[in-house]
Design goal:
Strand order of the largest sheet: 9-8-7-10-11
Radius of gyration: 21 Å
Number of strands: 16
Structural class: mainly beta
Order of helices and strands: EEEEEEEEEEEEEEEE
Number of domains: 3
Mean pLDDT: 88
CATH class of the largest domain: Mainly Beta
Helix content: under 10%
CATH superfamily of the largest domain: Nucleic acid-binding proteins
Low-confidence stretches: none
Distance between the termini: 52 Å
Length: 188
């Protein structure tokens, strides 16, 4: 059995019949009272974000999670369809389970977190950085490079990313999927 000493960022625990991921945690010690352990938790199977406090040494219930590599196939009425790269089994997941659905492109590999107790998918995580092609962008004005001015550009997945003025249509760029920001231009 796990205790509050085992809490770490990213751990998924069962609390009040729901699953939560630990976003941040810490410990409060006072001179007279016993130490308390607090954590900011983000719902895995719900959209809630909560804070919870335990007495130091209390029992927690972690959930064993396995990450598997899946390939994104397509999107239809049933949701986003992925295929397991080992067993070729296909699953359809709703958009709410995907951390950055606007950057999914066909054939892209993603990490699917699976609850090993129920064998149910819990979330889909894209790579931190991906390379996408700019499909539409207004041309930048020549000589307007003194400031870090950004312009909107549409990429092949349909998402809009703010890019520097020198990025043109047809170029490949690297994008951070966590915050949707432009990182750099990529040479072909």
């Amino acid at each position: 059995m796990a205790t509050t000493a085992d809490i770490r960022t990213g751990l998924i625990i069962k609390l009040e019949n729901s699953l939560y991921s630990v976003v941040e945690f810490g410990q409060n010690k006072t001179a007279r009272a016993a130490a308390k352990v607090w954590a900011k938790l983000k719902g895995v199977d719900n959209s809630r974000s909560i804070e919870h406090t335990w007495n130091s040494g209390d029992t927690i219930y972690p959930v064993r999670v396995e990450k598997k590599t899946y390939q994104f196939l397509y999107q239809d009425d049933s949701g986003f369809n992925f295929m397991d790269n080992e067993t070729f089994e296909q699953i359809a997941l709703p958009e709410s389970m995907i951390d950055a659905p606007q950057f999914l492109k066909e054939g892209q590999e993603v990490a699917v977190s699976i609850n090993t107790e129920t064998e149910q998918p819990m979330s889909v995580e894209l790579p931190d950085k991906i390379v996408v092609k700019v499909t539409y962008s207004e041309p930048g004005l020549k000589g307007d490079t003194a400031t870090r001015t950004l312009k909107p550009a549409t990429v092949e997945t349909g998402a809009t990313v703010n890019v520097p003025l020198f990025v043109n249509e047809g170029e490949l760029i690297r994008v951070n999927t966590k915050n949707g920001e432009y990182i750099e231009r990529v040479k072909e």
